[in-house]
Amino acid sequence: xxxxxxxxxxxxxxxxxxxxxxxxxxxxxxxxxxxxxxxxxxxxxxxxxxxxxxxxxxxxxxxxxxxxxxxxxxxxxxxxxxxxxxxxxxxxxxxxxxxxxxxxxxxxxxxxxxxxxxxxxxxxxxxxxxxxxxxxxxxxxxxxxxxxxxxxxxxxxxxxxxxxxxxxxxxxxxxxxxxxxxxxxxxxxxxxxxxxxxxxxxxxxxxxxxxxxxxxxxxxxxxxxxxxxxxxxxxxxxxxxxxxxxxxxxxxxxxxxxxxxxxxxxxxxxxxxxxxxxxxxxxxxxxxxxxxxxxxxxxxxxxxxxxxxxxxxxxxxxxxxxxxxxxxxxxxxxxxxxxxxxxxxxxxxxxxxxxxxxxxxxxxxxxxxxxxxxxxxxxxxxxxxxxxxxxxxxxxxxxxxxxxxxxxxxxxxxxxxxxxxxxxxxxxxxxxxxxxxxxx
Length: 440
Hints:
alpha+beta; 16 helices; 14 strands
């Protein structure tokens, strides 16, 4: 299918034909190397872009084996195999040391990195809280969106992600603990940027899958960088309690709130990638904003576009587990002690799982020729992200508000490639201007 092109004059008949056609266009994907990196290149490669750790063959095979300092590593690129593995109980396939070491600086001891006896208690409380929070909506979220977007229209050219991050945090803070004030954007952005850089500063102990109790100063530095955000959350929770607003059960700690707040990254990154493609690809915006479509049809179209964005840019690019015993899977045996990498990014880009894997095609989510068990942007099994419904809802609200209030005009027509660290951010800033609709 050809990509629709903008016209110099308005053609009603052609416009109606285009709006009825699903957009389908190639995207700029990361070019994987032809081989695994040498041992001395592992750390520099991981710090620069972790996607480069994996050779191109993993995008065309169901699984691949590798060895790092004598330790076995299995990469599962087949969605069905990955799903079967992640659904194994934790006593058979638990969190790997690598998983804990990578995410602990960002998540503390909360539910995402916890695999102790208290995890089930945290999980049950978290699911209950997430169900409650999904219904905690009011008109204030629309006011928050409008305030931020109004500021975009009077700004000069700006980095899209830098504007969407504080907006995402603001929306989550309101949903989680009723925050109604003005977000200290510069302080929050600085703390987040410093914290992310520290958390992604992988070291030798991470490469060798060292136990978490063998510590480095990275966790300490990450906690110090996170302190302003933790203080902000603790203050707001205390004020809510003073107002007799008991938001959570006693099992829900500040660590849990921080883990839930980390969902801002999923909201911000997914919204940024989708809005960047909308601003860069006229056919996508024409399809989403076609005249005379019903609200239900608009919701259906935007939901498909969000799913396709999550497929191409899953928020958590890598999940690591360790086999605690020999595990039979798909006709082979995963030996005890093997580190298993389940990468939503690799699975979502694997040509065995998806037709036209490197194209942006929302229509794939209404066809039967793709294996949708291979769609796992938020993980799968007992440790699947409990905030995914809230996250998707906020992404929908954010993108909808941006679309209906104006137009993004990107400075460059070529979007950057993704860069994998803790999450899947653009490798370069995406600069844009925002032109408000007439009368706004």
